[in-house]
Design brief:
mainly alpha, 6 helices, 0% strand
């Protein structure tokens, strides 16, 4: 569960930042963001723990630059929120590997993902309100929200099935 949330959040973070920059014609910077995102996926696979902190810095810095350049704030906030989510999931996954695997571990994992998911949802609601106020609520933004909602609902269904 943690690995899936980690991988999805890396993809959403990189894609959100890249989309926000590409929307304003900064495609070369977008490509670099996607390359760093692909590097983050590789780092998860290779267990390069240091890379998630570097990528968190790159993502937050890129989002801040995007805000200063008046890029769509929703995409910048989404990129930063999901980068922070991915960084947290990476750290949590690293700590879980050192714990004895039992039922309590699964419950700890479930609670942690739920708490962080609620924070990410609150951030997306804030970003959506900002996009709405600036009249930048686009079809692409709606598609991102639908994807995140479907992933959240799938997670809930999975939890309810395991409880039965």
């Amino acid at each position: 569960m943690t690995v899936f949330a980690l991988l999805v959040s890396i993809i959403i973070s990189s894609a959100s930042l890249a989309w926000g920059f590409a929307e304003r014609g900064l495609t070369s910077f977008s490509m670099w963001l996607l390359i760093f995102g692909a590097g983050w996926l590789l780092a998860v696979w290779k267990r390069w723990e240091w890379y998630s902190s570097l990528e968190l810095f790159i993502s937050i810095f890129s989002a801040a630059i995007g805000i200063l350049l008046y890029l769509p704030p929703g995409w910048m906030l989404s990129g930063a929120i999901f980068a922070l989510f991915a960084w947290d999931m990476n750290d949590f996954h690293r700590r879980l590997r050192s714990v004895v695997n039992d039922d309590n571990t699964r419950e700890m994992e479930r609670r942690h993902v739920a708490r962080v998911s609620l924070l990410a949802l609150a951030g997306l609601l804030l970003a959506s309100a900002t996009m709405r106020m600036r009249a930048q609520f686009t079809f692409e933004w709606t598609a991102l929200l639908v994807i995140v909602i479907v992933l959240g609902l799938a997670q809930l269904v999975g939890w309810f099935r395991k409880m039965q």
